[in-house]
């Protein structure tokens, strides 16, 4: 006999308490009567005809002792091993992607569920069953149920996933059941043969001669003429096969060919001369009636290079033009003055009063009174900063000026890193900028003069120079402005390798991307970054459903549970217009699940000590109900002996 | 302790009754009882052969005409009888509500009065501790009875009950001349049967009156009880007993009680002795008019 709640056996301590109570309680009522003559005769009568009456008190005492013992036993939930009865089963169902392999009309998963249902249907009184599903999640589906109907219903409700199985987690859940009933048997319905199965009964529902073709990867490079070359990898598991493989670009068929595959050996397929210069999505597709169609496709998502229209206003644009020219995505138009730039926007009759229509505005020394609101802004050495930014020149309480030039302070020092005041974008903007070898708080960028900004609330300071703010960015997420307090000509940036690094950081800051990857695996957590001035973010899943990702002011993370192409769309307000920006990414099926081979390797790791060997064919039933019936009988007997005899 | 044994109402009831002796007895001359010696009474008793000297008026000429034999008639002779009333005055009789002892004394007075009414002699004998004590000698006549009743009311109870020893210790147990009435609860280990046999052997008419209290018929007890006998000599006396009284025990008690009463009744019936079992709840009228009638000792 085992006890599921052995701590309750402490209740047996009430037994000596009862014994002590009986010893102490010996009070007799004194009563004088005329004669005990008849009472003595009645004693003889009792001895002769009802001898058990003499033992009545002892019998009641024994019954009360047994009652206490039974209560303690019932509370301790004893179980008894009975051959063929009270069996308990833990049914682990493998819901991994490989279980979708279909032969004829049934998939492996359907056969697994049928096998489990077959066992569950044999449940008799006293049997219990637990169903654990492992697929896109690993959890109890029903826990220690004694209802065959309920267990079958749960099994019938299971669906196969596109995920790999997590048997270790499932086994841990099963072991928890065995802690409550050491006799519980574990069954694992899967599609592999395993070694080192410990006490797990593996039921392999895979059939011989099942095969499956899978597209494992797709990548792209460019040829000399700029056209794309696609490389895909395909494999046929279980058999040699002649496979028809097709390439689609942006949904349109480009090429198809017959590929000979040797069983279980990946085969590379090159697609050259496609004539494709750019694309958003490409797909390699295997046309085959194989075991699992979900892995017959593989996608490639590419986010088209964005090009940005840049307005550069500078009377000495050489350095800036040079560095901007290194960025292929920048299409730069240069103007000497703001007036000139405005003039370029005027359309004959109507004079433009504000700058617009560009993705990036670079103001070198001169800045309009009102900043454009449809693009990012970089300004260098601007004295008259637009009021809307709230930046004002220093007038008092500043380090003593060592000479000045038209209001600019002479600093003759290097730019210093300012992590304390750098804010959210410090890491991004200072990425890869070299530290000075003598003082790692300083850069190698020297300055001669800078504009002494005094008030700049609402801005984070990325770099300083002799306590002056040198590079500032606003804390407002939607405002992508970088203010340089110095003219680039007053620094040695142009000759430093830090210049392109800094401009790359500035570009990344000004034009953030939604996602950092276009390829994810099932189960990955995907985080979408909000674009500046984005008012709505939606996610379109492979099944076509669209969900809004809210709230907008916090990172939007979600886990991908199905393979296919996902598209994130952000509605960005630029000026008076709202523009939709999209980003697509691909979630591929787990590659290991395509293999229909029957060999599964080691199932139970050495760390799992397994359940104790309790022999075959035994099950445990809880016997508290029988003890409770016995307790009821005892209580009735005690009542009859004590109360009925008294009254 | 003085007890009220008789009152005027008590006497009024008794005057309607007569104590009846069913069989012929020898007794002193002058009473109102039939005697088994032949005498000058008016009731025909028997025939005998004529012997010279007999009164010729007693010759039965019918017999002569039929059988030509000379026989004379004989008539009963009425005599005075002697009633002995034995009262158990042990400690056990001093219990019950109403007290058994008081009932016993009233019954003794009742039978004593009936005796003096019938011009018999009566003696009251108090039994205690195995001895018998005459209350006041032989009583005759109503005046003597009242004196004896006054003494009866002052009778004390105490000591053990040994009826056999007490009756055997009497110097004058009587003979073929009256009734011996034994009034006791008979809750004793002593052999009261021998006492009755002894009296019967002495040719006495015996009447046994067993007196019980209502509590003895239906004890009101439950649970763990230490029963102390009224005549016990201390707590260690073996007559004391401890019992855990429940319904079954109570039923066993009643069964044992009924069995004992039946034993007494059966013994008395087998010996031709009269028997009455009375309770403190019974009135004197019920006892004498009903139960007494049933015994045949009262008419």
Q: What's this entry about, in short?
A:
With 647 residues, chain A is of the alpha+beta class. Chain A is elongated.
Figure out the total of helices of chain A: 11
The whole-angstrom Rg of chain A is 41 Å
Low-confidence stretches of chain B: 21-30
Rounded to the nearest angstrom, the distance between the terminal CA atoms of chain A is 41 Å
Beta-strand content estimate of chain A: 35-45%
Distance between the termini of chain B: 33 Å
Q: Kindly state the mean pLDDT of chain A as a whole number? A: 87
Figure out the total of helices of chain B. Answer: 9
Decide which structural class fits the backbone of chain A.
alpha+beta
Q: Write down the overall geometry of chain B.
A: elongated
- Taking strands numbered 1, 2, ... along the chain, how are they ordered across the largest sheet of chain B? 5-4-3-6-7-10
How would you sum up this structure, described in words?
The complex is a heterodimer of chains A (647) and B (299). Chain A is of the alpha+beta class and 647 residues long. The model of chain A has no long low-confidence stretch (mean pLDDT 87). The longest helix of chain B is centred in the C-terminal third of the chain and has 25 residues, at 247-271. A 6-stranded mixed beta sheet of chain B has the order 5-4-3-6-7-10, sandwiched between helices. A two-stranded antiparallel ribbon of chain B has the order 1-2. In chain B, helix 3 packs antiparallel against helix 4. Chain B has helices spanning 8-14, 61-67, 100-117, 141-152, 163-168, 192-201, 214-217, 247-271, 284-295, and strands at residues 28-49, 71-80, 82-88, 121-128, 131-134, 179-184, 205-212, 223-229, 241-245, 274-279. In chain B, 34% of the residues lie in helices and 28% in strands. By secondary structure, chain B is α/β, with parallel strands linked by helices. Chain B is built from 9 helices and 10 strands. Strand 2 (29-33) of chain A pairs parallel with strand 8 of chain B, so a sheet runs across the interface.
